[in-house]
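Structure in, sequence out. Go:
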């Protein structure tokens, strides 16, 4: 059974970590200032500002920062600065038993996808495909903050994962299924295949999104998931945005959905505001959700956090 972290409350401590690629110091500081202005305490990891080319510190250093946040009794939310690349390299250095016995809210997307799915699978922890520190800036729409804080503070259910007004969820394959949502960034999930951290989609609703990939590469990744049995195992599919995914050979991302995903025959919703888009829905991983494509709804049927 999934372990739910304690809800975030005003004045709580938020731990900041950099788990993949480095982020500019001014953007980190801007995010910290916004969190402090919101009334939160902020604890900065030892290697948050580290830079090693396209990585921030060694895998051991980044893993150490994360483990310290899980072990710190004051920290209620762990917020990565960004994704980038390299998050998967910290996985062998984490102590999943310690994480299981010290559950915290942890949120992220992009390359952080691999971590939040692994924490659900190996530590039974409910995690959140939602905001990172780089999203705490004045240009972020209020929808994103509302989605984020609703998901990590609400201790009642049910509640809806809803797109912003005028951006409809689209039903492609009819169905009404209930199960745990897993998934996130397609590129990161494909990278997990064939490893001990491979995503488990059996009996799950699989959520996928991506960014800055030509659609022939998207097709390649989707086909890899299919050959690995991940679509056979899942009970439903949610497709988010593929931001800046350029057409290739006359085919668009929508064509790939219609020609590759629809024929799989699984209940299918598309166009969820997600992760790399301007609008970012908050998707809790590890809790049961009802996906009804007849009325185009996603209903979280249990709280994702506890009092």
């Amino acid at each position: 059974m999934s372990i739910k972290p304690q809800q975030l409350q005003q004045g709580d401590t938020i731990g900041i970590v950099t788990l993949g690629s480095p982020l500019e110091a001014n953007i980190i500081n801007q995010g910290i200032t916004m969190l402090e202005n919101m009334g939160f305490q902020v604890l900065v990891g030892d290697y948050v500002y580290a830079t090693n080319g396209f990585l921030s510190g060694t895998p051991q250093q980044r893993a150490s920062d994360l483990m310290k946040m899980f072990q710190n009794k004051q920290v209620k939310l762990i917020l990565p600065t960004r994704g980038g690349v390299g998050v998967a390299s910290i996985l062998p250095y984490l102590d999943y038993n310690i994480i299981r016995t010290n559950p915290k809210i942890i949120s992220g997307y992009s390359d952080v996808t691999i971590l939040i799915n692994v924490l659900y699978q190996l530590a039974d922890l409910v995690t959140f495909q939602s905001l990172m520190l780089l999203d705490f800036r004045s240009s972020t729409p209020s929808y994103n903050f509302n989605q984020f804080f609703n998901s990590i503070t609400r201790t009642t259910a049910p509640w809806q994962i809803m797109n912003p007004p005028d951006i409809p969820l689209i039903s492609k394959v009819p169905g009404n299924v209930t199960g745990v949502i897993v998934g996130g960034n397609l590129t990161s999930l494909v990278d997990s295949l064939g490893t001990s951290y491979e995503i488990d989609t059996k009996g799950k609703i699989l959520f996928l999104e991506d960014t800055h990939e030509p659609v022939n590469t998207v097709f390649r990744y989707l086909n890899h998931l299919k050959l690995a049995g991940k679509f056979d195992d899942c009970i439903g599919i949610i497709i988010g945005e593929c931001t800046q995914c350029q057409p290739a050979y006359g085919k668009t991302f929508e064509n790939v959905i219609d020609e590759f995903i629809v024929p799989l025959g699984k209940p299918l919703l598309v166009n969820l505001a997600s992760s790399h888009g301007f609008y970012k829905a908050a998707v809790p991983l590890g809790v049961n959700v009802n996906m009804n494509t007849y009325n185009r709804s996603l209903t979280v049927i249990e709280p994702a956090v506890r009092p």
